[in-house]
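Encode chain A's predicted structure.
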Amino acid sequence: MKILVINSGSSSLKFKLFDMKKKLSLISGIVEEIGQDISNVKIVYGKKKIENRLKIKNISEALRAMQKFLEKSGMIDSFEELCGIGHRVVHGGGRFISPVVIDRDVEIEIEKLIPLAPLHNGANLDGIRSMRHLSKETPQVAVFDTAFHSSMPNYAYIYALDYSIYERDGIRRYGFHGTSHSFVLKKAMKFLKKESLNAITIHLGNGSSMCAISNSKCIDTSMGFTPLEGLVMGSRSGDIDSAILIYLAKKYALSFDELDEMLNKKSGLKGICGKSDMREIHKLASLGDLKAKLAIDIFTYRIKKYIGAYIAVIGKVDCLVFTGGIGENDYRSRCKILNNMKHLGIELDIDKNKEMTSGIREISNIDSKIKILVIPTDEELEIAMQTYLELKLLI
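Encoded structure for chain A:
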């Protein structure tokens, strides 16, 4: 019983093939720089790593290349033996609050949502349509980044703008990284042997977000109408005074595209110190770079503020969960975030925090009222599991 997970972007394609009986990844790959003169292809299965450089014009050609690699690996003979294909779709709007088997009507609805995620939904849809041509009989399922956050109450997702803007244009908080937050929540429940959890999940990477969870349901999240809102990120600003944009646009005659590029590609950690990779920033800080130190301070301070806010809205919190590239691996940032939070029931074990072991680990000390967990995320496995469940194949 095999599920193929596909994440098609505007210039890249990621994929993973899973054996659902064992919940095991059989082969994974990425095709980068699609549409350029030469595209990079990387495939990993078992202990083998294959890298190739090909000319790939579009997503359709990337999927055909993927098909050849999958068949050559011996993992599948053809797509027809797949139980299903799961697609990451970034934006489900208010329409899609759970995974859905894809048909023509679903495709039309995803297309209507392209204005809400112009860089993502169109590319996701290209992947869906191209796969249908390659494998007409295999059922396809859309799993939405926004779906996990659909349980938020309206007072958490409606912005204090003219209400007609929400009614007319669907402008509201949607939240993203939903598959990651959902995955680590389930892992935390199993680890702590609880059927329901009050938790704060903290996904930290180049893109970062947090989620307030009550009784295993999302009640608030840091990302908003787009992934720009919330925490400080690699090159995204996160929360700012929106009047700043009006001020800068008037003073320097900036276009909408220039403002968009500034907020999404030239802000965040990169805007402060010139680097977006936290590993490089820590190295610079250790050498005395003041801007690197400031970037770390701003990054960790914002997360600390959100933790306090989410404790206030949740009430009794069972655990904090760190995940994502930074959340899982950067003990220095975790230490800085959680420093001096004993008054909130959060006490970090410094030695456990520094341990670099694989799998789930608890890093809170014995006196901490709130458990602190580090849980590696696996968004592709979560998509595979949701696809499997939607197709009613999982026993």
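The chain is about 40% helix and 20% strand.
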